[in-house]
Structures
1.
Amino acid sequence: MSSTNRGTDRNKFDYYVTPQKDIVNFLEAFKRNHNDLENVKNVLDPSAGGDQNNEMSYPEAIKKVYFNWNVETLDIRTDSRAKHKGIDYLKRNISEILPDYKPDIIFTNPPFNLAMDFIKKALNEVRTDGYVIMLLRLNFLGSKDRNKWLKNNMPHEIYVHSKRMSFTKNGGTDSVEYAHFVWKKGSKSNTKLFLLDYK
Ligand SMILES: C[S@@+](CC[C@H](N)C(=O)[O-])C[C@H]1O[C@@H](n2cnc3c(N)ncnc32)[C@H](O)[C@@H]1O
């Protein structure tokens, strides 16, 4: 979901590796703000990424902060490290891939161009009172196309990454601000905004 390297060498499936430290930073703040996470068992990463040289960022970051979540992973790429590879999340019901599985949280950095479809599908699939958490550009909020949907489905919380995130090996950043957007299925409360601390 980065705009770095957009253009000729842009990966067909919009594959970028999210820095684990930024996910950990978010998760620590999320954990501090929630006392309902002891009920969480099943977490789904529907675009889990990873490849020969890179771990899957979200499952690895989760292990560093929460040790007892059962994280299921899928990805459309066959060279991903996901347990369920070659799967188009938007074309398959999660119950076909994982019978009797109901995610408590669906959590990922989705492919940029498909982010809205990922969010809508995830909100259908997560349990009531469960969370859909997506890394998105801050200007996700500003689109005319999404305005109506957003007004009816305001995020429960937004955690802004105040330091620009780097999706490249050389540590370069693009000129885009990111945030972890949290939807709570069934909740209509006002959006809470958090600015993450960086040391
Ligand atoms: C921005 S990358 C993020 C990867 C990983 N979540 C991370 O944060 O490092 C998006 C991922 O979505 C996968 N992807 C793209 N379209 C998909 C689809 N329709 N269904 C499932 N995965 C998809 C790509 O292969 C890629 O691994």
2.
Amino acid sequence: MAPSHESIVIVGAGIVGLNTALVLAERGFGKLITVVAEYLPGDTSATYTSPWAGCNFSAISGTDANALRWDRLGYAHLAKLASTSGGEAFVERTPSIEYWDEVVPHDKIEFMSGYLEDFKILASTSLPQGVSFGVSFTTFTLHAPKHCEYLYHRLETQYGVRFVRRRLPSIEAVFLDPESTKVVFNCTGLAARSLPGVEDSKCYPTRGQVVLVRAPQVNTNIMRHGKDYETYVIPRPRSKGHVVLGGFMQKGNGDASTYASDTASIMSRTKALSKEIAQAEPEILNVAAGLRPSREGGARVKRENVSVVGKGRTLVHNYGAGGTGFQAGYGMATDAVDCIEDILFEIGRGSRARL
Ligand SMILES: Cc1cc2nc3c(=O)[nH]c(=O)nc-3n(C[C@H](O)[C@H](O)[C@H](O)COP(=O)(O)OP(=O)(O)OC[C@H]3O[C@@H](n4cnc5c(N)ncnc54)[C@H](O)[C@@H]3O)c2cc1C
């Protein structure tokens, strides 16, 4: 069967599916990919996490070897994007400060200090009350919904990736044509918990509420990691002074409603954290809640052999990014694509044979 758009199918058009398509397209497979998703960039839904992200690169991710590697690859990817096409990609270099009250992941910070631009440990005398450790570095901030739309457009126009809007009833149904679909990437985010054929009981939602404000005086990304709270101020690139204020990390909470009490808590914590926010009363533009696709043990990036109508096929899981899909998504995608090099070689050979 000659390679076609059905050869590689990616289910999911959140940041993880889009980055998976990007890594494959950069290796020359764009015209052999179909992305199938119920929600596409530009849509909003409680079951589509990506548009609700803050969104920045931070030290919030896990401390295991995978998380460290994915972050490093993600940081390098964002650095390149910001340098070459930051404007159209809605990615910007931004000065950043991160504080920890108690639990400081020192080993991870030491690893990250090897690649973060302008990394510094802050003098203990300069730390706010209650903070035990702080660092500054240059981070990347993203306009999450616009960045997803940028990737969608780039994948279609530059690389010839095909997008299809469809809700699939099971993972098996993702093999669009059992004859020609050689590999499927499962990038379904939180839906991996309930999608027939996957039903991963390790997946759970982590609720976050954010407040979008207008505060053009804000230039610095700032975060405070507390024992039971997470406070952050993230300026949004190319948004005429919009800033995302947060937030919450409510493990196991799948409630996508917003609450006035949460908004009040975010406003008072961010005013205390950021001198730039405290300078002038910010105008509230929107309040939203999103559900991070978390997973016990971290994201699942794993190849699996499956049988579809009697034929051996390959399924690559790539989900469970939790609160790090934008910073780690490119790294996760790199691992997901690397694990099917043998299949890509065969697909590539078939594709060249047609020419
Ligand atoms: C408040 C908040 C703040 C955040 N801040 C940051 C941040 O600063 N930095 C950062 O890196 N990350 C941040 N995140 C986390 C980030 O948003 C997620 O890690 C990321 O969006 C997960 O992307 P995903 O592609 O796995 O899932 P999703 O974006 O949910 O995409 C899943 C896709 O799968 C599709 N799908 C699912 N089931 C089916 C089916 N049966 N048939 C067809 N299609 C299906 C959906 O339609 C969708 O297209 C934040 C999240 C929240 C909620």
